[in-house]
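Lecture notes, part 5. Sequence design as translation. It can be helpful to think of inverse folding as translation between two languages: the language of shapes and the language of residues. The source text, in structure tokens, appears below.
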């Protein structure tokens, strides 16, 4: 207890500091000053980015054109260049004599270990690429990937890139219904999945579960299902459609040349939640995306490729896993740690055990994970030797100053700079952060825009806000890694991202402030998307899942502040007829949502409501639901069809007549 109290006191003292300068030893090794690097693009960011393409990538045909904005907002970058993404991540390192360098120290949930070299990863990638090609997969075809965090997931992504196929990776924690839905949306021609996956000591029959849904909801475009043997459980196989991946690889040619493709060749689709029940198929291209992910990984993490070991805790299926687990590190020839399991299994110190085991120097995780580690206590990281750590990173969502300081002190030993990065699935790569060894960091503040990036905090009307004034985050100039469109939905792309402030300015969807020094603080979402543990979920998608339950008449979902996950899902539910809500029904609804979307979408809190606050036109006022859920004074209710609804809900919550929280 004394240790915990002492730590609280130390963090309290540190909270008085508004900024932290780079540690002396780290700053001494900085290659450039922050000013030099930030001023490098000058007034011509596209020309500067064009120069970076030659610094970080290997081109079959070097581009001479940078940005083409003639069809805004459908921008193109380096359109006359040609490259192969898989070659840039694998072949060129092997050709340079680094084939025996470890690409991934892989650790399975049950303690299995495998070091995958660049040469081995290249060999597996080529055989998977040929296995796909042998079954008719060609450039432009969509291949779904639904795998746990095993090396085959990375090889499958790179195999698609090698032959120009577009991969559509679905996070391994999603339910089979969500996987099949995404295969429908993308008209996938093939799916790569697994016999079973382990999670916290249990094995889930993944392929069998997918078959159950596919029998009920066939995907007409799906011709082939490749199954990776990961756990050895009995697995049904459909003749003519299904094939074991190891058998397909054994029969495939070991050589698959990396064919050059235009820079604008689509690389992947990643489905992200939107403000409707239909997920958005965010499409990223090859040359621009890889240029920015490779450059930002090298510069933001101050990569020293010969000595650094990097550990990103993200899964593929979320953009962090794509950009900073796969493409950014591999394009730079880095050595990474890949862990299959949960952060608290088989024990709550597993991440720190892996850091010690593999000599991790660069560690990148989410603020949600840091808050969970805080909750578990400082003794877990302190049991392990973390002295090799030299840089820490956080990703995506706002981090509060106390969590930032805990990370700085307990994990980093007050010697490691923290890069608190802001970016999105749509941006593809890091946009805002502090450069380690070159800029001061401010706890809980993302930082300044990177070179070649412009961001603004603006009012609802698009006017630039005064320093320190909260407004909306907007990006007025295109950047190389940006999404190119929403897959097969260009109208929604324009409406979602480029209608609020005009065709040339990207609307981020986050509230933010920018101080006098240009540092950006990201406040959180302003649309109907909930950020749970760094995972963006549509309120409409969760509502649709709840309403699909036969006992539910109507539902409204909001995100409410949560100290563990950033935001938690709260659902206001109206039941059919005279049904009454019970604890058993709470559990039933949570499991129902988990089955349809995934466990991360389960509401933490369910509040029974006879009615929902709606305007006279029928629109649900989620702003008022957020107010009442978080105990704030209610705003204007005069526009409601029945203003008394909020009074009844408020009285119900204050009286404690709501179901228990999960």
């Amino acid at each position: 207890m004394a240790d915990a109290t002492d730590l609280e006191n130390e963090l309290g003292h540190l909270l008085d500091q508004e900024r932290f300068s780079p540690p002396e030893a780290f700053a001494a090794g900085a290659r450039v000053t922050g000013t030099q690097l930030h001023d490098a693009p000058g007034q011509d960011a596209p020309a500067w980015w064009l120069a970076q393409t030659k610094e970080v990538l290997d081109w079959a045909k070097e581009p001479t054109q940078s940005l083409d904005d003639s069809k805004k907002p459908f921008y193109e970058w380096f359109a006359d260049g040609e490259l192969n993404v898989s070659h840039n991540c694998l072949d060129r390192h092997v050709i340079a004599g680094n084939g025996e360098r470890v690409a991934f120290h892989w650790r399975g949930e049950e303690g299995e270990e495998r070091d995958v070299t660049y040469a081995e990863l290249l060999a597996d990638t080529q055989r998977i690429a040929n296995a796909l090609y042998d079954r008719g997969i060609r450039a432009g075809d969509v291949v779904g990937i639904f795998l746990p965090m095993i090396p085959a997931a990375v090889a499958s992504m790179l195999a698609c890139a090698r032959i120009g196929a577009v991969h559509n990776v679905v996070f391994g924690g999603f339910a089979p219904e969500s996987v099949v839905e995404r295969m429908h949306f993308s008209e996938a021609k093939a799916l790569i999945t697994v016999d079973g996956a382990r999670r916290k000591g249990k094995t889930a029959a993944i392929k069998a579960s997918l078959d159950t849904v596919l029998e009920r909801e066939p995907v007409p475009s799906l011709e082939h299902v490749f199954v990776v043997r990961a756990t050895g459980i009995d697995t049904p196989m459909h003749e003519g459609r299904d094939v074991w991946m190891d058998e397909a690889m054994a029969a495939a040619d070991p050589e698959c040349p990396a064919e050059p493709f235009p820079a604008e060749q689509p690389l992947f689709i990643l489905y992200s939640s939107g403000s409707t029940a239909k997920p958005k198929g965010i499409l990223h291209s090859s040359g621009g995306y890889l240029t920015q992910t490779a450059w930002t990984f090298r510069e933001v993490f101050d990569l020293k490729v010969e000595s650094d070991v990097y550990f990103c805790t993200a899964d593929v299926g979320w953009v962090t896993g794509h950009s900073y687990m796969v493409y950014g590190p591999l394009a730079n020839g880095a050595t990474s740690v890949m862990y299959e399991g949960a952060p608290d299994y088989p024990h709550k110190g597993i991440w720190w055990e892996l850091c010690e085991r593999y000599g991790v120097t660069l560690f990148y995780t989410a603020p949600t994970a840091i808050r969970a580690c805080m909750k578990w206590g400082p003794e877990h990281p302190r049991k392990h030797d973390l002295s090799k750590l030299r840089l820490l990173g956080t990703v995506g969502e706002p981090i509060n100053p106390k969590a930032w300081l805990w990370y700085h002190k307990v994990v980093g030993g007050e010697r490691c700079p923290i890069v608190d990065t802001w970016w999105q699935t749509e941006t593809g790569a890091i946009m805002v952060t502090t450069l380690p060894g070159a800029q001061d960091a401010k706890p809980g503040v993302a930082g300044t825009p990177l070179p070649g990036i412009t961001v603004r905090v603006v009012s609802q009307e698009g006017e630039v806000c005064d320093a320190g004034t909260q407004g909306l985050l907007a990006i007025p100039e295109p950047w190389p890694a940006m999404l190119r469109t929403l897959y097969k939905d260009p109208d929604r792309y324009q409406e979602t991202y480029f209608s609020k402030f005009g065709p040339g300015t990207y609307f981020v969807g986050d509230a933010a402030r920018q101080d006098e020094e240009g540092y950006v603080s990201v406040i959180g979402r302003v649309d109907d998307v909930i950020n749970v543990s760094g995972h963006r979920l549509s309120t409409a998608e969760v509502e649709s899942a709840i309403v699909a339950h036969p006992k539910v008449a109507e539902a409204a979902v909001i995100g409410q502040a949560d100290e563990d996950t950033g935001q938690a899902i709260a659902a206001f539910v109206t039941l059919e007829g005279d049904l009454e809500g019970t604890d058993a029904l709470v559990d039933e609804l949570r499991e129902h949502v988990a089955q349809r979307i995934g466990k991360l979408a389960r509401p933490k809190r369910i509040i029974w409501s006879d009615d929902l606050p709606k305007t006279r036109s029928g629109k649900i006022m989620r702003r008022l639901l957020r107010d009442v859920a978080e105990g704030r004074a209610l705003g204007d209710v005069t526009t409601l069809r029945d203003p008394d609804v909020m009074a009844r809900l408020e009285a119900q919550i204050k009286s404690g007549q709501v179901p228990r929280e999960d």
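The translated text above is only one of many valid answers, since several sequences can fold into similar shapes. The domain at 85-96+117-259 is CATH 3.40.50.980 (Rossmann fold).
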